[in-house]
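Curious: can you check?
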Amino acid sequence: MNSTNEITLAKSGTEITAVGQVSIGKMQVTRAQQTTPTLDLVARYNMSVYQSARSALLREFTLNGTQKGAQLLHGELTSPMTFAWAETSTPVSDSTLTLSVDGLDLADWKPFVGDVASSGNVNLKVQLLSQQAGKQLTFGLNSQVANLTASVGNNQLSQANVTLQVNGRAVNLNQFNLTDYQLQVAQQNQTLVTVSGAGNYDKAADTADLQVNVKAAVAKLLQILQPDAVLSSGNADLTAHVVQRGGTQGVTGKLALSDLTGKFGQSQFNAFGATMDLDVAKTPQEIQIHRVSGKLTENGKPGGTFDLSGTYGTNKAAQLTAKLSDFNQDGVRAFLEPMLADKKLVSIAINGTANVQLNPQGDSAVKADFKVANLVVSDPKNQIPATPLEAKMTVDASVQKQVADVRQFQITLTPTQRAKNELQLKGRIDMTDTNGFQGNVKVMADSLDFTSYYDLFAGDSKTPEKKPAAAPKQTTKPAASHPASVPAVAEKEPDAVKLPMRNFTADVNIGHCYLREVDIANFQTTTKIDGGHVVVKPLQLALNGAPVNANVDLDLGVPGYKYDTSFGAQAIPLAPLVNTFAPDRKGQIGGTLTANAKLSGAGTTGANLQKTLAGQFDVTSTNLNLSVANIKSKILKGLVNVIGALPELITNPGALIGTVTGKGGLSDELAKSTIDSIDARGDVASGKVNLQKAVVQSTAFLAEARGTVTLAEVLTNSALQVPVSISLSHGIAKNFGLASADASTNTTYVKLPDFYTEKGTIGDPKPDLNKVALAKVGGKALLGVGSSLGGSTGQLFRDAGSLLGTSSGTNSQSKTNQSPEKSGSVLKGLGGFISGALGQTNAPSTNRPKQ
């Protein structure tokens, strides 16, 4: 870089002249491991500033830049140019200053531009014409960006062409007239958006007038901004007039959306249109909404109109009036149908008015009426009657001297044979105390039935089960180490919370609430809030005739919170709950559920839960009649899979036994069984969850578990130690040779050797299988089959069973502690030997349950 500059001060410094030349050669810049091309720049200038005459004279200016051997920048002054910000009578000839950029490749400058505009070719020309001794300046800008690739939010615009043209003039650098401007963005010769207009600004008078016109191809733009949008047509037009006078700004205009067709998100549009007229002003004191009104259409059919007017002051005082008129299916179909699952909107009528007056220093009031009528949907399954539904909401509330009075807040639904369907809220809130609001709110209803409305928005509850990913092939021997754990990181308890309420009470009293087959009766609860202390007591109801009670004492005023809760429910019928919320499983579950729990503690992090969490729980269910094949709970399904997998751990002898004896495999027997009851009981104390009893009982098996979960500072690292014992029904155990000859026929279940323990952590549970015990089970099964078969084949099974029994004996410490891989190899080899002896070239097919 070379630079030569000469600065001359004259007339006590009121005249300053600067003459110089700056040259930069072979400049390259490296950033983010990317280097720009070589750039050469040469600039010459000669300029004087006359402070007393309030003018400046640019005698000479040239700028030249070359890149990759071609001219990139060029600036030139045709003759001396005067800039005057005061009256002058000195005649000066016209002069023009031009600046151009030719062929700037944005990809070369990506280290500085980034992904905002990662590629594109830029051409730019700026022209400044000085007239009348600089009192009048005329300017023009013309630029093009070709093949632009730019980031738009999280999406990308590619192969775009952008043009910008601006023309205008300035008088005495005080009055500016933008004669015309236009910005256009196109892609593949299709215009996406065009912004154009004109305007002027008077600096001395502080007035402005700007015209804005926007035309946009909405369908194309949305497909760029949201690639999942599938739109075939749609355009938007905006005409706006912005005016500023005497400190007041005003905007008037009209926005029109037309012929929007296609799918955007979950909404399906069919020649949808909307128009809005806008007349808004802003003064130093308030925003004035003179009028905001519009209408919706679909396929040319009117879909409803809306109006909004009012004011909003800087002192937060407001007065607003809103109105919805004749909104119907043609106006709201695209927005409402996605919430109706697989149903179609047939008709709807929406009307409403609202008046809001807010005055922080005086009285305020809210009055509103909202009504939805003639709501009819088409159900392809014909499960919902086409009876029109309606909903109404009425609000009348006021605030006087900082005391709010809710005189009426009522929601009315279409009455049914079971319910009147009116919900009311009334209350009074005193806000005079700055330490917290005081008051009482009551929610009351004689009877409510939400079934028809729930059916409108409820879809098919069936969700396809995801197939488990195939387990990666294990190439190395697993290390007998502790389960993977998450490194302990100091967790911070949530900050204390003080609610803006003091001595505040909310009461709820609902006689009956129906939802399909669920019947909640005598629902009563009282919530008291005092700062950060929240007490819910009582909370009581009858769920399909079964009593349910709960209490909550929550102190939010301490970091991490402090809590003491209890819950009790006696013999809740399960069928109505399943039939209501999982109708695809209707009739699959019966019986009742009884649950009691009490829990207290302080804090939510693992460290504090270790120290303070305490309580107990007891859950009992009876007469479930739940088919094992219909189990969807991962915990129960996993447990049943473990039981079903017993014979398969010795090369599928369950299926093998079925082949020989003509009886189904053990897994099939279990799949046909039903679970009668599930019980769990335990307590929490001293950093441990003690599972005192967990029982799953079915007609085919009995599973019992007892163990502990030791809480860790990182909860997902909490260690599991839960042994599970399995017993098979006497009939199944006898069929598979697992019942001893002297076992009493009155014995309901025959206990198997303990072989399964759930270990690892909550975040990474690891089943621990005792394969020695499994081998003993397999041996007994083979001995039993051999005894029933007789002959050489039976002797083969008896010999195999004896071999398994010997290999699994407990007298040899080395054999007992053999590695799982070795044990598995012995068993698999034995299975192959048996298969070969029966004349089978391949092992019987395996119906292994999903793990």
